[in-house]
Specification:
The protein is 47% helix and 16% strand. It has 274 residues and is of the alpha/beta class. A seven-stranded parallel sheet has the order 3-2-1-4-5-6-7, sandwiched between helices.
Length: 274
């Protein structure tokens, strides 16, 4: 069980990866959950709260934007009031708020506002919240800060260049934060996992695009299926454990061989042939 009065801070806690992480962290470690979401999915947010509270833990949801510097400062101050200092055992950055656009080709190439919004939400906000947690002394001893990424940084999926570029920047933030916070005992990592059929995926590429990605993944991944969102939540809970404390500054591959198998499929499209 967790140490007394320890919390998980989860951005994007109402659905998808964030909700799965909240349930797994409270179930495995007894962590209370302070979640931030934009209020777009009230039904799933209610289910997320019930899943956490069913374990006997507390779930406090803040409905607001999480992706700006001001939002990070306001949210961290609310967290301090709710949980107190040195209370955050793990911070999970599961924000999904990006623009889909091509860079130069097409009738509406990427606009500066789209670029700014995507980088703010998907990359810079991890830095803003990390700064706020550190400045307000909210991090518990040996706290874990965990960002999330995907194979888009290694692949070309039309229209997702902004997402891929922001996630690449996020990886750089993780490595540098790991170096800065490591001497204090904290650990900063980024988890790269494969395609999961979530609202975030459908919002990024549309229902037809999500179905096309699912077919492609089934064709190339050795397991022949998509990753389950609950599996991501369970891995996040494992990474919060003391036995995982040697991970630091790492990009943890949880793609099930998706990236490697994709390139093998391109080079050798007929299965079984050398």
């Amino acid at each position: 069980m967790a140490r007394p009065a320890e919390w998980a801070l989860i951005l994007g806690a109402s659905a998808g990866t964030g909700a799965a992480a909240a349930a797994a962290l409270s179930r495995r470690h007894g962590l209370n959950v302070f979640g931030v979401h934009r209020g777009n999915h009230p039904d799933t947010a209610e289910r997320a709260v019930r899943a956490v509270e069913a374990t006997g833990a507390t779930c406090h949801l803040r409905v607001s934007e999480a992706g700006t510097y001001a939002a990070a400062r306001e949210g961290a101050n609310e967290l301090l009031a709710v949980a107190g200092p040195k209370s955050v055992r793990i911070f999970v950055h599961a924000i999904a708020n990006a623009s889909v656009a091509r860079l130069v080709v097409g009738t509406r190439p990427a606009h500066p506002k789209q670029v700014a919004k995507t980088f703010e939400a998907m990359a810079h906000s991890f830095l803003w919240w990390s700064q706020a947690l550190h400045d307000l002394d909210l991090l518990a001893p040996e706290a874990r800060l965990l960002a999330l990424t995907n194979p888009m940084t290694d692949q070309i999926l039309r229209g997702t260049a902004l997402v891929a570029a922001a996630k690449a920047a996020l990886e750089v933030y993780v490595r540098h934060l790991a170096a800065e916070l490591g001497p204090e005992g904290h650990r900063v990592n980024i988890l790269k996992f494969g395609a999961v059929n979530t609202n975030a995926l459908r919002a990024t590429v549309g229902d037809e695009g999500a179905e096309r990605i699912e077919r492609s993944v089934r064709a190339v991944v050795p397991a022949g299926r998509l990753l389950q969102i609950e599996q991501v939540g369970e891995l996040i809970a494992l990474l919060a454990g003391d036995e995982m404390s040697w991970f630091n500054g790492a990009t943890i591959d949880y793609t099930g061989g998706e990236t490697q198998s994709l390139w093998d499929h391109i080079v050798n499209p007929t299965p079984g042939e050398p």
